[in-house]
Design goal:
The complex is a heterodimer of chains A (294) and B (272).
Chain A (H helix, E strand, L loop, with lengths): L11 H7 L22 H24 L13 H12 L8 H32 L1 H14 L8 H8 L3 H25 L3 H9 L4 H38 L5 H10 L3 H29 L5
Chain B lengths: L1 H4 L10 H28 L11 H10 L10 H32 L1 H15 L7 H8 L7 H21 L3 H9 L4 H12 L1 H25 L5 H10 L3 H33 L2
Helix pairs in contact in B: 3-12, 4-5, 4-7, 4-10, 4-11, 7-10, 8-9, 10-11, 10-12, 11-12
Chain lengths: 294, 272
């Protein structure tokens, strides 16, 4: 009963004030046209979208191929990109096949992200529930947070070297702040009446936490996790570009050195694809975790 | 315990001492833990100064490098170089991104045409543009521009788009009925009505752009704060690295503060 939509409606203004990344946006599913006209519109929509993508691909092909507007180094032709893809998927490139690089990068993101979720959510809940904890942690946060996570990379390399731990640390760092802040805001914005009602019905301690606080803050928690995930990929690529032995960022830097623009494109596409995939998975989890929102 | 769980509603039982705890004691303790812990770690020799120099060493190094050049120039000049790159490409991103977002929100055909392309590019982290930035703009001053642009552009577009989408259609129709032309509709209705969203997007974009800039400077270029800290890192001089990080943090906070002030002004002016 207490699990029903106790969900605090996050106050958008308050979130934006607290966290610049909370406002990071997804493209809202392109607005469905108003009901009456919707019989004909969707097909027109796909036509326009398809034509636009086709035109772009055609322009790419023409500019790099027959017309030779751009040199292969400025922009690889589709054929170059395909060759690069086959090369890295088959014999490998930059000391590994595509799968090895993807697995390495994805693993690092997962580790850092999981660590941030496991530490950030509890801290956010504690800050949301106790003014004292908030008063203690918040100033530290305010001091440390403006330092871009990316700026930690040289220091972490100095501390941990070029291996796994340095990268997991910066990824954790990047994902930690958005997770904590959104969780904290989420807990803070739970409707006070709900908390009172739950208490009047005898909820306290664990029950209050699991049945009122966590479900109430869940939408905000997931907002934080989504933001974190994007930050994770950004920092991972930066860290791998600065120094690494394997991973998609490593492919990027080797391909830059080799002036292999086709390979660069493949690596960029792989990063984007993995980012997209992980966001989609997270959205699935979100849907499963909050059945009442569906 | 009880007041702990009612925290969401603010301290209703305002015991003065508790208030003082929240206002002064705990924040002071937190800050003391941060800096005291830092000072102790390096001061007691728990961590070698080669890894983590104490706060005073860092401050001294910072002061020193306002006079003595490191990695090519003094701290202020690195800072200026970074700021200059940031301002140039951030302005370009705002000037292109906001109108694109507004038009996408206003004209459905444009939305349909751009959205799939935009969605495909959105998941490429800004930093991944570094290789092409090098190929297109060389390794010089302009090289990070593309990366900053990539960081700042998307939030500007998305928020302007959302702003234009949430406008009450009746408002636009009323305007048109009163004789507003295409241009007037854009400047007199669309822009003001979505301004709050636009500014929110610009603020997010500024944060991303600044981060992306630092990331780009770590990898390419020979000026700027990012370059300075990566040089300090490879020369095993953590004091340089940390003073660079502090500067980056200060500027980042300054940018965000400015943006927040702008946001407040806009909200006050257009709040209904």
């Amino acid at each position: 009963m207490a699990r029903l939509p106790l969900v605090g409606r996050a106050v958008p203004g308050a979130m934006a004030l607290l966290d610049r990344s909370a406002a990071v946006t997804r493209l809202p599913p392109a607005a469905v046209p108003p009901a009456p006209a919707s019989r004909r519109r969707p097909s027109l929509r796909w036509l326009v979208s398809g034509a636009s993508v086709a035109a772009l691909l055609l322009a790419w092909y023409l500019a790099t191929g027959p017309l030779e507007l751009l040199s292969p180094m400025q922009l690889p032709s589709p054929a170059d990109a395909c060759d690069a893809l086959l090369e890295i998927a088959g014999e490998g490139y930059a000391d590994g096949t595509l799968w090895q690089h993807v697995a390495s990068s994805t693993g690092l993101v997962l580790y850092g992200f999981a660590a941030a979720a496991l530490t950030g959510v509890p801290l956010g809940i504690m800050m949301g529930q106790s003014r004292l904890v908030e008063a203690y942690v918040n100033p530290v946060f305010q001091i440390v947070r403006p330092i871009a996570p990316i700026a930690w990379i040289p220091l972490t390399i100095l501390w941990f070297g070029l291996g796994t731990s340095a990268k997991v640390f910066v990824i954790w760092l990047a994902a930690f702040a958005p997770t904590v802040i959104n969780t904290w805001t989420g807990v803070r914005n739970i409707d006070g009446t709900l908390v009172e009602a739950a208490r009047a019905n005898g909820a306290a301690g664990r029950l209050m936490l699991l049945d009122v606080v966590v479900p109430g803050a869940l939408p905000a928690i997931f907002t934080g996790l989504r933001t974190s995930l994007q930050a994770c990929w950004m920092v991972l690529v930066a860290a791998e570009l600065v120094g690494s032995f394997v991973g998609l960022g490593h492919v990027l830097i080797i391909a830059t050195r080799d002036l292999n623009s086709g390979m660069i494109m493949v690596a960029m596409a792989a990063v984007a694809a993995m980012g997209m995939l992980m966001s989609a998975l997270l959205a699935q989890v979100e849907r499963k975790a909050m059945p009442w929102k569906a | 315990m009880e007041s702990l769980t009612t925290a969401g509603r603010g301290g209703r039982r305002a015991i003065p001492s508790r208030r003082a705890m929240e206002r002064w004691v705990m924040p002071a303790l937190g800050i003391a833990t941060l800096f005291g812990g830092w000072a102790l770690l390096s001061g007691l020799g728990l961590v070698s100064p080669a890894f983590l120099p104490g706060p005073l060493t860092v401050l001294r190094s910072m002061a020193e490098h306002t006079r003595e050049p490191y990695a090519g120039s003094v701290l202020q000049l690195h800072l200026l170089a970074s700021l200059e790159k940031f301002l140039i490409s951030f302005s370009i991103a705002v000037l292109l991104g906001v109108p694109l977002g507004l038009f996408m929100g206003r004209f459905r055909a444009l939305d349909w045409a751009v959205a799939p392309v935009f969605e495909a590019f959105r998941f490429i982290p800004p930093i991944a543009w570094v290789p092409f930035a090098i190929f297109w703009f060389g390794t010089g001053f302009l090289s990070p521009t593309l990366v900053i642009f990539a960081g700042a552009f998307a939030p500007c577009v998305l928020n302007a788009y959302r702003g234009a989408k949430q406008i009450d259609r009746a408002l636009i129709e009323a305007g048109q009925m009163l004789g507003a032309g295409r241009w007037a509709t854009l400047t007199e209705i669309l822009l003001p009505a979505s301004l709050a969203h636009i500014v929110a997007g610009i603020r997010v974009g500024a944060g991303f752009g600044w981060q992306s800039l630092i990331g780009a400077e770590l990898i390419v270029g020979s000026t700027g704060l990012g370059y300075m800290i990566v040089q300090g890192g490879s020369n095993l001089e953590p004091a340089i690295v940390i003073s660079g990080m502090i500067t980056i943090g200060l500027i980042g906070a300054g940018i965000d503060y400015g943006m927040r002030a702008l946001q407040r002004r806009v909200q006050r002016k257009w709040a209904r």
